[in-house]
Design a protein that fits this description.
The protein is an alpha/beta fold. It has helices at residues 3-33, 39-69, 82-94, 118-135, 170-174, 192-202, 233-237, 253-262, 276-283, 303-311, 342-360, 378-392, 402-411, 428-438, 453-462, 474-485, 505-508, 514-528, 532-558, 562-578, 582-597, 600-625; strands at 78-80, 101-106, 114-116, 139-151, 154-163, 206-212, 216-227, 241-245, 266-270, 289-293, 316-320, 334-336, 371-374, 397-399, 416-420, 444-448, 466-469. α8 (253-262) links the parallel β8 (241-245) and β9. The termini are far apart.
């Protein structure tokens, strides 16, 4: 083996060993994001995740040097938003600024997405921003998009990063983009700018620098990307009725109203006077989304949300919050932390509504999928198990080597296998080849920290359907499940529920005392409101909603309309949750899952007793409210 070959093997091994623990760091951070956090905790977690991803990019620098020598870097084109990529870069770098340094950003909001390698763009931008932050102790760093030039189906982006730092001497500037040359001998390997320049060349662009010692430096980055098709925002937001609640014109509501009207959505603006609560409750049934500007409203406004959701279980509540807002996340369906530009709010609304559309149409329930995870590193498979359970309600099977995986696939029926490569007894490639001898159809997804083009090709040759690089990105896993649900990977996916035998018993114990349920509902509302008239009115609305869904459930059962029953149970779950009735709400959610997964018989078994209990509860409430 030659010295360069030994070097490449060493670099691949180091990359694998470092990426594996990073899977757990990033993975458990994402799991933490699924828990109840206040806005300050969320801010800290966001920064931790951004910085961890940046650390991952540094680990990749060593591999990139080898890849560049072998001409092995391939750009991964995905549909992304330029605004999101650059805003996340700004968020990361803000944590590294000196106290007397101001970050001045100018990032336009494009009304279309682009096809680009998000990771590589971030790698370049963060490298240059990090250098600016390191060498600037006072003054400012300007991070501006200076030009967006549309050229048919392509777009040329120009970005300027200008700092008031120490600047560079002519000698340093001359060798600035050479590998292993750094202007700061105490930090770094001098790889970042060299790699950045080579990556930008792959994007038909260039990096130009100017600097004056003692005054600062300017880097101009230009690159070309493909213009993607505009998203169906008009369809997603069309017909949506939105309320905006704010004390002042902190947000340009007029501009937001004009933007929404272009997407066939309407906006109604409310102040925060004493009549606001009454107005919201009176008209909650007419609206789809309420936006609270928490920059100008007291945190107690969050109490209104429970009231709104009792009146209208389908209404979505969004909070606009600042860095120091100490607000319980669980009260809102979404919190927006970014700038309060109307275009940004529109983008967040579009993304949120699109995700809600997926959820409401049932494509996001993956609990019926039978999954086998093949992974030998304990902390990695423990994280993957937790991630599948918390994020997708999936209980997976586990194999710790390729030989065990082959036997499990022989003796069980799975919808998908996630396969590691480097394992004892039998590696992932050989395990896949062995499985393909008796099962040519099962989707096998490669999970590997080895990310060379040859590794991707080897996975394909072995018979794997897709390649996911470590650390595992939850969104990539979700995309695999979406493709499975849409039969893009395989047409004959089993939709029978996984291991449902014996699971009904814990859900049959629904005989909660109707009087106790009523007392819990009163207690919950009394903690939020001290006005008996308001509480009585809310309970009346709740009774109306529950009776409506009880009637719908009976009719849809007769018509055997499973899709409608899913929606009915989802709505019932929301009404009960907003009355503070956690156990009945959980049971409603379980029935919803059973209908979605095709487990009709068990769904009906649980439903019948559940409906009987809820009917008794409603009758108890009606005794009080007349």
């Amino acid at each position: 083996m030659t010295s360069p070959e030994k070097q490449n093997l060493f670099m691949a091994s180091i990359s694998h060993e470092l990426r594996t623990p990073l899977t757990s760091i990033l993975g458990y951070g994402e799991l933490l994001e699924e828990t109840s956090l206040d806005s300050k905790q969320q801010e800290y977690l966001d920064r931790m995740l951004h910085s961890s991803k940046y650390l991952l990019s540094l680990v990749g620098d060593f591999l990139d040097i080898v890849k560049l020598e072998k001409n092995d870097i391939k750009l991964e084109q995905k549909e992304v938003r330029l605004h999101t990529i650059l805003s996340e870069c700004a968020d990361v770098i803000k944590t590294n600024l000196q106290p007397n340094v101001f970050l001045d950003t100018k990032i336009p909001f494009l009304n279309y997405t682009i096809l680009a390698d998000e990771r590589r763009i971030k790698q370049v931008i963060l490298n240059i921003l990090s250098n600016a932050a390191k060498f600037t102790t006072q003054g400012s760093i300007k991070f501006h998009v200076t030009d967006v030039k549309e050229m048919g189906e392509k777009v040329k982006i120009e970005i300027r990063i200008e700092d008031t730092g120490t600047g560079m001497s002519p000698e340093v500037q001359k060798a600035l983009f050479d590998p292993f040359i750094t202007s700061d001998s105490t930090q770094g390997f001098g790889l970042g700018l060299y790699i950045s320049k080579e990556i930008i060349k792959l994007m038909d662009g260039e990096i130009v620098s100017t600097s004056k010692e003692g005054e600062g430096s300017t880097f101009t980055i230009s690159f070309v990307v493909q213009k993607a098709q505009e998203k169906a925002s008009k369809q997603i937001l069309s017909g949506k009725k939105i309320i905006f609640v704010s004390q002042t014109n902190y947000v340009n509501k007029e501009e937001l109203e004009i933007l929404l009207s272009k997407f066939n959505a309407s906006l109604t603006c409310y102040g925060s006077d004493n009549n606001t609560l009454k107005k919201l409750i009176d008209h909650a049934g007419e609206y789809d989304i309420v936006i609270f500007n928490m920059h100008t409203l007291p945190s107690s406004v969050s109490d209104i949300i429970s009231t709104l959701k009792v009146v209208n279980p389908h209404i979505k509540c969004i909070g606009l919050v600042g860095k120091n807002t100490n607000l319980p996340k669980s009260n809102f369906d979404k919190l927006i932390y970014h700038s309060l530009e109307p275009k940004t709010i529109l983008f967040e609304l579009e993304e949120f509504t699109a995700n809600e559309h997926i959820i409401n149409t049932g494509f996001m329930d993956f609990s019926y999928l039978r999954v086998l995870v093949v992974e030998d590193v304990e902390m990695s498979y423990e994280y993957i198990q937790q991630m599948l359970s918390v994020s997708f309600s999936i209980s997976c099977d586990l194999a710790t080597n390729g030989k065990e995986a082959v036997e499990k696939v022989k003796n069980n029926t799975y919808d998908v296998v996630f396969m590691d490569i480097r394992m004892p007894l039998m590696n992932g490639y050989d395990a896949t080849k062995a499985i393909r001898e008796f099962n040519p159809d099962i989707p096998i997804i490669c999970m590997s920290a080895d990310v060379y083009a040859k590794d991707v090709e080897a996975a394909k040759e072995a018979g794997m359907n897709r390649f996911i690089s470590k650390p595992i990105d939850k969104n990539e896993i979700k995309q695999v499940f979406l493709d499975l649900s849409g039969s893009k990977i395989r047409n004959n996916i089993s939709r029978m529920p996984f291991n449902t035998e014996g699971q009904n018993e814990k859900f049959l114990l629904t005989d909660c005392n109707p009087v106790e349920l009523k007392e819990k509902a009163y207690q919950h509302l009394e903690e939020l409101f001290d006005d008996n008239t308001v509480i009585s009115g809310l309970l009346g609305k709740a009774v109306e909603s529950i009776e409506k869904y009880l009637t719908n459930i009976k009719l849809n059962k007769i018509e055997e309309n499973t899709a409608a029953l899913v929606e009915d149970m989802h709505a019932m779950k929301g009404v009960l949750a907003n009355l503070g009735l956690k156990k009945p709400s959980t049971i409603a959610g379980e029935i919803q899952k059973r209908f979605q997964s095709g487990d009709i018989n068990n769904a009906y078994k649980i439903k019948n007793e559940f409906i009987q209990n809820i009917t008794h509860f409603v009758n108890e409430l009606k005794k009080d409210i007349g």
